[in-house]
Amino acid sequence: MIADHYHIDRNECEKTDLIQNGYFYLLEYDAYTKTAKKQGFDNFPLIYCIGPDEMSINAFWAINLHHFDMNTQLYILNEMQKQYHAFLEDVRILWNGKQLNDIYSNIAIGLRCYNRKYVMDSFRIKMPCVPKYLGLEEKFRIMDSKDAKSKFDLAPGNKGF
Asked: Bigger pLDDT: 152 or 4?
């Protein structure tokens, strides 16, 4: 269960069934394909939701911060803070793909499309608390960065940044 995996503080996160763009979430996600399970799919992603998938009402696009090392995670959050004044208060901040790409040019490495029906549990992290949940234990293989751009471009419904 996600609350046990992350030791979630209920003052910092709120349980929710609604995933909206502009917020960070901790998810419990069930890998549903044999390929995903073989590749070591991330069952407990820390994500920033970008928005809904244009081809499926049940899917959404997000950046999974676990696909970056700790220094890169900190760099991305620092740039979000510097450029967009994030994390000062708990407000929804909408960053589009171009803004995220301007923050970190290899942001596509962490881009994933998630199907809502495979989200077993979800917690929205209050913005000032997001940095506390970085760098937690990873139980999956991080995708090779040289494949990220081509896999991103081939993803169903993706229009690119």
From this structure: 4
